[in-house]
Specification:
Elements lengths: L1 E9 L4 E11 L19 E10 L2 E9 L10 E6 L6 E7 L11 E9 L5 E8 L11 E8 L5 E3 L12 E8 L5 E9 L2 E9 L6 E8 L6 E10 L2 E9 L5 E6 L19 E9 L2 E11 L8 E14 L5 E4 L2 H6 L3 E2 L19 E6 L7 E9 L5 E6 L10 E6 L4 E5 L11 E6 L5 E10 L2 E6 L3 E6 L8 E6 L3 E9 L1
Antiparallel strand pairs: 1-2, 1-33, 3-4, 4-5, 5-6, 7-8, 8-9, 9-10, 11-12, 12-13, 13-14, 15-16, 16-17, 18-19, 19-20, 20-21, 22-33, 23-32, 24-29, 24-33, 25-26, 25-32, 26-27, 27-28, 29-30, 30-31
């Protein structure tokens, strides 16, 4: 059964419906076989991804978080994709060593590069912080090579220490002058720095200089990326500190000082270890969304989880925005219909700026769902959003996505009990709300939810009870209007 699409305009005092002339399918009619936007490892979870684009394919090496009981941990595994919609997980490609005194007792983040002959080089972190190993430091930069990215040979005699227990996450790139550079996360005089090592052949490395000194604290700057995109250079790193996000800096010329954006991150604390990589003419950021301790919504964000990919959009002044990956949006283009829980059309919802109201919608399907809508902001006060696992009208459940116009933040709450009992903020990101119309896209893939606000900011977290449960649209004393609410699977 098919219906004629109707463009839904939820005004401040009522709603106007207009025909759009396209078709809407009943829920359950779309085929999402092999579709997986936020994959995890086939034997566990995804830790620190290391994207490497090669021959028309994005190769995402990652630390496999098996959460098993063996001694060693975090081998390198590999996923590949051409569209960020379906992934092939090749499993472990570089193993750890289950030996108590091995520098490779655990593996840490690194990077992959192809040399001028076509051979692949992986530089990674060997980690062993056990006592009485006889090793001089906890972490060592290690080297492996491959002809196919699947089978790797370790070159243990080519590894090197850096004089610090924190000495890790090598990122290697070829500079314009033909010299290879390796950026390393480490410490100097009690503060976090990124050091630069250089090589002419990828085999022998010499310390060059401090590439970047932490300009916002003393924390370690993990998983660095340095990349040129169009006319700008970008440095990204993840904060091992109080604000657990991926930051970035940029500059026009190498000799210029780094520019720190007013808001220097594009997603909140639910997205971590993001690394930049070019995909032809696109710039991507690849990270992960954490699982939670105890596997409940208010549990502390853990280490490792599901892969999350954003497409980055460059402004003329060099600033970056985050938006949904184009191929994901194209795939999630089959429009389906949803009604209120009582069977009425969504047009029956009615909001006003003097009160707080919420309307419960029928259960989300188990399929990956995109919820798309516009918001006309008439006044920078109040808040609007969606609440998941909601049972009745005019209430909020524990799982809330909110745009707070007054504070200027997009937020998730994981333990809300009402409009005035939201509890502790789960994750958030600042947003530049302005009067007029803004667009929101929300993608829900099982437990992972990512909201894209006006194609500028992303906000990712993990909620455990969204799928196959009812949800609601709400406004809390906001002078605003929903319009063009649509659902895609």
């Amino acid at each position: 059964m098919k219906k004629i699409t109707k463009s839904l305009f939820l005004g401040l005092f009522g709603f106007v419906l207009a025909s759009c002339g396209t078709s809407i399918n009943q829920k359950g009619s779309t085929n999402q076989e092999n579709m997986n936007i936020n994959p995890k490892s086939k034997v566990g979870y995804v830790g620190d991804p290391m994207p490497f684009y090669d021959n028309g394919e994005m190769n995402i090496f990652y630390l496999q978080d098996g959460r098993n009981t063996t001694l060693g941990f975090h081998p390198f595994a590999l996923m590949t994709t051409k569209d960020y919609v379906s992934y092939n997980d090749h499993g472990v490609v570089i193993p750890y060593e289950d030996e108590l005194d091995s520098p490779d007792f655990a593996l840490g983040t690194g990077s992959v590069i192809k040399d001028k002959t076509g051979k692949y080089h992986c530089f990674y972190t060997g980690h062993n912080s056990r006592k009485n190993t006889g090793l001089p430091y906890f972490e060592k930069i290690q080297h492996a090579t491959s002809d196919d990215k699947i089978h790797w040979q370790k070159h243990k005699d080519k590894g090197f220490y850096g004089g610090e227990n924190d000495f890790r996450d090598p990122y290697v790139y070829l500079a314009d002058d033909g010299i290879y550079h390796m950026l390393i996360t480490t410490r100097n005089l009690g503060g976090g720095v990124i050091k630069d090592y250089i090589s002419s052949d990828l085999w022998t490395w010499t310390y060059n200089e401090i590439f970047f000194k932490n300009d916002s604290g003393t924390y370690n700057m993990e998983c660095p990326t340095f990349i040129k995109y169009n006319d700008y250079y970008y440095l990204s790193y993840s904060e091992q500190g109080n604000n657990r996000v991926t930051h970035y800096r940029y500059k026009k010329n190498l000799s210029d000082p780094w520019i720190k954006p007013t808001v220097d991150y594009l997603d909140g604390e639910g997205f971590y270890a993001g690394r930049m990589e070019k995909d032809n003419d696109k710039l991507m950021m690849v990270g992960w969304c954490a699982t939670r301790e105890g596997e409940y919504d208010t549990g502390k964000l853990d280490w490792g989880g599901n892969l999350v990919v954003h497409e980055l959009k460059q402004k003329e002044n060099g600033l970056l925005d985050a938006k949904m990956v184009s191929s994901v949006k194209d795939k999630l283009s089959n429009e389906v219909s949803y009604k209120l829980k009582n069977g009425d059309d969504l047009s029956k919802m009615s909001f006003d700026k003097t009160s707080a109201k919420a309307y419960t919608v029928e259960s989300l399907s188990k399929k990956i769902t995109r919820i798309s809508f516009d918001i006309k902001i008439n006044d920078l006060d109040g808040s609007i959003g969606l609440s998941f696992n909601t049972l009745s009208n005019h209430t909020l459940s524990n799982e809330v996505f909110m745009l707070n116009f007054k504070t200027g933040y997009a937020l998730y709450y994981a333990n809300a009990t009402g409009f005035n009992q939201l509890g502790k903020i789960d994750v958030c990101v600042p947003c530049d709300f302005k009067l007029g119309i803004m667009h929101v896209d929300i993608v829900i893939d099982n437990q992972i939810i990512t909201a894209y606000i006006n194609n500028e900011k992303a906000l990712t977290t993990r909620f455990y009870d969204m799928k196959e449960n009812t949800f609601s649209f709400f406004m809390n004393k906001a002078d605003a209007e929903f319009s063009s609410i649509k659902f895609f699977e």
